[in-house]
């Protein structure tokens, strides 16, 4: 046997390889390929080890480096587009074009009551300014009296000063509370009895609730700042934020300061906010375009797809056909999910960023990555941060600070939030069903259920928690499209979202419907009311 080495440069870029021909006393020699390894030793190409060490499958739970699912996400996106395109074609063949520029008819009186209420509501915010301005003048006089008493060492006058302050602060608190409550009562009465169209009613009620929350925050914050101003603290135990020193009390009690807070994309009052140096008008134009496009998408989805589904669900509910109701709920889930996601982006990403850019408002963390939440507690602290900040600062933290156990404080906070949600849903639709309120109450045991999952190590705990998060129960009215199918929700994407829409739509049709007016099952309602 003869072995003859032959040098050859390969196209693969490996130089120094040798091709060796092995002859076995035959004119038809067969070529065998041998390569040099990293140590300069020769080895056969067809014999190098493929399975040289232990490895796990990429999708196994014990994989050292979990793979990216970018491709699967793209596949699911393509599948969703294809399936929804089929539904769009089927809907068009069945119902034709339902979207019209004229929209639904609005009673003439609705517009009059709407604009009156919309323009009247901010007046209560300026009433709060007048109350606080009077309190500031009184505080200045008492600070001057206290300094005089200290200089003359008049201890009796100092004690009398404290008693007067306590009684006066109670009067001021009563004035703030009466002003805020009166505003909300008037707005709720007007919306429930005088604004028939739920779309206009929802917008008016939402505006009233926002201004009410701002009035409360303005009163609470200035109360503490007023207390710190009047009761000087040489020891430094009562410390205000450092940034407040640029606009201390009572210098912040101005119409300019209040007007900025009125329009600022926050529900929490501060005398100063972090500010940007300039406005980016191209950024404003992009956010405005996003908002308009998404609003049109929501409008089309509601008018063309959700309304027929809701209309077809009336008989199923009237007859208590549970299978039919479940089928309608699941069928509506896709449209409600699209409307909700589009509404979330339009409000929190487009509208609030647009407003913040115009006002040079620098803190724009209006939401966190709630879609990755593995437990409901994380979701509630990241989904709607303007409301979360208000609840934490003015409701939860004061109760805990006064010694209430955190669990009880959380329950009270959720009950308060549930009342606000029912106010935003039931009042505009003229049906106080309690569905929105119960949706918030159910969050309490669900939080306790998902809390252990957030503490689990590994991927499975987070996966299970995220799945429970996406299928939990909580409803919320969409602020711009509360009529027909425009009762969208925050969570509960596949059951609660469409179920809440069906409940309030059925109640509306049973109370005000003109065509195909359903009757309440089991005599639960009065269709003639």
UniProtKB/TrEMBL annotation:
<comment type="function">
    <text>Sterol O-acyltransferase that catalyzes the formation of stery esters.</text>
</comment>
<feature type="transmembrane region" description="Helical">
    <location>
        <begin position="171"/>
        <end position="193"/>
    </location>
</feature>
<dbReference type="GO" id="GO:0004144">
    <property type="term" value="F:diacylglycerol O-acyltransferase activity"/>
</dbReference>
<feature type="transmembrane region" description="Helical">
    <location>
        <begin position="288"/>
        <end position="309"/>
    </location>
</feature>
<keyword id="KW-0256">Endoplasmic reticulum</keyword>
<keyword id="KW-0472">Membrane</keyword>
<dbReference type="GO" id="GO:0019432">
    <property type="term" value="P:triglyceride biosynthetic process"/>
</dbReference>
<comment type="similarity">
    <text>Belongs to the membrane-bound acyltransferase family. Sterol o-acyltransferase subfamily.</text>
</comment>
<comment type="pathway">
    <text>Lipid metabolism.</text>
</comment>
<keyword id="KW-0808">Transferase</keyword>
<feature type="transmembrane region" description="Helical">
    <location>
        <begin position="432"/>
        <end position="449"/>
    </location>
</feature>
<feature type="transmembrane region" description="Helical">
    <location>
        <begin position="199"/>
        <end position="220"/>
    </location>
</feature>
<keyword id="KW-0012">Acyltransferase</keyword>
<keyword id="KW-1133">Transmembrane helix</keyword>
<keyword id="KW-0812">Transmembrane</keyword>
<dbReference type="InterPro" id="IPR004299">
    <property type="entry name" value="MBOAT_fam"/>
</dbReference>
<feature type="transmembrane region" description="Helical">
    <location>
        <begin position="329"/>
        <end position="348"/>
    </location>
</feature>
<protein>
    <recommendedName>
        <fullName>O-acyltransferase</fullName>
    </recommendedName>
</protein>
<dbReference type="Pfam" id="PF03062">
    <property type="entry name" value="MBOAT"/>
</dbReference>
<dbReference type="GO" id="GO:0005789">
    <property type="term" value="C:endoplasmic reticulum membrane"/>
</dbReference>
<feature type="active site">
    <location>
        <position position="421"/>
    </location>
</feature>
<feature type="transmembrane region" description="Helical">
    <location>
        <begin position="115"/>
        <end position="139"/>
    </location>
</feature>
<dbReference type="InterPro" id="IPR014371">
    <property type="entry name" value="Oat_ACAT_DAG_ARE"/>
</dbReference>
């Amino acid at each position: 046997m003869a072995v003859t080495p032959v040098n050859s440069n390969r196209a693969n870029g490996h130089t120094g390889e040798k091709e060796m021909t092995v002859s076995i006393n035959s004119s038809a020699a067969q070529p065998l390929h041998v390569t040099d390894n990293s140590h300069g030793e020769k080895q056969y190409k067809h014999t190098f080890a493929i399975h040289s060490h232990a490895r796990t499958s990429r999708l196994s739970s014990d994989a050292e480096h979990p793979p990216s699912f970018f491709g699967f996400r793209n596949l699911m996106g393509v599948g969703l587009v294809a399936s929804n395109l089929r539904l769009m074609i089927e809907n068009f063949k069945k119902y034709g074009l339902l979207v019209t520029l004229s929209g639904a008819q609005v009673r003439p009186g609705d517009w009059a009551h709407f604009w009156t209420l919309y323009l009247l509501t901010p007046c209560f915010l300026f009433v709060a300014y007048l109350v606080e301005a009077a309190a500031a003048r009184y505080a200045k006089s008492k600070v001057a009296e206290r300094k005089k008493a200290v200089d003359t060492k008049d201890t009796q006058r100092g004690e009398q000063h404290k008693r007067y302050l306590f009684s006066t602060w109670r009067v001021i608190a009563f004035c703030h509370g009466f002003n805020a409550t009166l505003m909300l009562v008037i707005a709720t009465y007007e919306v429930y009895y005088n604004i028939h169209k739920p779309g206009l009613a929802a917008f008016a009620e939402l505006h009233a609730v926002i201004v009410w929350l701002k009035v409360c925050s303005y009163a609470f914050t200035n109360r503490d700042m007023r207390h710190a101003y009047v009761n000087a603290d040489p020891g430094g135990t009562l410390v205000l934020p450092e940034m407040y020193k640029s606009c201390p009390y009572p210098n912040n009690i101005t119409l300019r300061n209040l007007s900025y807070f009125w329009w600022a994309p926050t529900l929490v009052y501060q005398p100063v906010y972090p500010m940007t140096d300039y406005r980016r008008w191209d950024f404003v134009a992009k956010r405005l375009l996003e908002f308009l496009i998404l609003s049109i998408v929501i409008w089309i989805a509601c008018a063309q797809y959700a309304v027929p589904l809701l209309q077809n669900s009336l008989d199923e509910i009237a007859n208590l056909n549970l299978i039919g109701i479940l089928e309608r709920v699941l069928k509506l889930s896709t449209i409600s999910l699209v409307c909700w996601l589009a509404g979330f982006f339009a409000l929190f990403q487009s509208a609030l960023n647009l407003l913040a850019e115009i006002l040079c408002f620098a803190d724009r963390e209006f939401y966190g990555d709630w879609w990755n939440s593995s437990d409901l507690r994380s979701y509630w602290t990241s989904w709607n941060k303007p409301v979360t900040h208000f609840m934490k600062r003015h409701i939860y933290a004061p109760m805990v600070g006064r010694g209430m156990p955190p669990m009880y404080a959380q329950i009270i906070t959720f009950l308060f939030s549930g009342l606000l949600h029912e106010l935003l849903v039931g009042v505009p639709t003229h049906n106080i069903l309690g569905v929105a309120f119960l949706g918030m109450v159910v969050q309490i045991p669900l939080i306790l259920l998902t809390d252990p999952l957030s503490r689990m190590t590994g991927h499975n705990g987070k996966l299970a928690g995220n799945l429970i998060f996406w299928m939990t129960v909580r409803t919320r009215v969409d602020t711009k499209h509360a009529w027909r199918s425009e009762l969208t929700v925050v969570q509960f994407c596949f059951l609660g979202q469409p179920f809440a829409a069906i409940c309030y739509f059925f109640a509306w049709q049973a109370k005000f419907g003109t065509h195909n007016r359903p009757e309440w099952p089991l005599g639960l309602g009065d269709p003639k009311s």
